[in-house]
Design goal:
Elements: E1 11-14, H1 17-23, E2 27-31, E3 44-45, E4 48-52, E5 58-61, E6 74-77, E7 89-98, E8 100-107, E9 115-119, E10 122-125, E11 133-134, E12 140-148, E13 155-162, E14 169-178, H2 187-205
Antiparallel strand pairs: 1-12, 2-14, 3-4, 4-7, 5-6, 7-13, 8-12, 8-14, 9-10, 9-13, 11-12
Length: 206
């Protein structure tokens, strides 16, 4: 999707995936982690670098039956016997900046604003109006996404934050958009267009 830039830039947050897709610019790419065998620690997939702000490793697993967004694997930790993160900060950095980025969070319990997705220019937390994705088992899925509303590729990284240790979570399906810049004609091109327009107008008068 390509749109003209707005007068002022802002990073806008979304908790509904469909609304996020409608607002995003460019083409979408999704990492669902299903092509990576469970049991592997990951640092990078394509041009996305995954890192943890704590002692836990970013780990591909299929060890939970509570459900995932995509068919099989998801991302949890590889340090302890249970595969969830706790009060961890997981950062996803992009070699090529994005115009939009999001992630699906999966955990048990009621909605909590302790979960947030943050970039250098904005943040979005789960809230009472967040869309709930019903999954098998006791866990539910939730989406957090950020969009540069001008369509600029200004998002270099996003961080998934959970401030409380009593809400273990894992995540699945990291999605992002890269906007295709709109070409602006050079001054010479404007002059040529003006000349063609005046020529056509003269011929119509005759």
């Amino acid at each position: 999707m390509t749109r003209p830039p707005n007068a002022s830039a802002a990073i806008v947050g979304y908790t509904d995936y469909a609304s996020f897709q409608s607002a995003a610019f460019g083409s979408e790419s999704v990492i669902d982690f299903d092509s990576i065998p469970g049991g592997n620690t990951i640092d990078r997939i394509d041009d996305v670098v995954f890192s943890s702000g704590g002692s836990m490793r970013v780990y591909v697993t299929d060890g939970i039956t509570d459900g995932t967004i995509s068919p099989d694997n998801f991302i949890g930790n590889g340090t302890f016997g249970f595969p969830e993160f706790e009060n961890e900060v997981i950062t996803m950095s992009f070699d090529t900046a994005r115009s939009a980025a999001g992630i699906f969070v999966i955990y048990e319990g009621s909605l909590s604003t302790s979960f947030s997705l943050t970039s250098a220019g904005g943040s979005q937390s789960l809230e009472a109006t967040s869309t709930v994705i019903d999954l098998p088992g006791p866990a539910n899925g939730y989406f957090l996404g950020l969009v540069d509303d001008t369509g600029a590729n200004s998002i270099n990284s996003v961080s998934l934050r959970n401030a409380t240790a009593d809400r273990p979570y894992y995540f699945d399906n990291q999605t992002s958009f890269i906007s295709i810049p709109v070409a602006i004609p050079e001054p010479g091109s404007f002059a040529m267009l003006a000349l063609i327009g005046s020529t056509v107008a003269c011929r119509r008068r005759r």
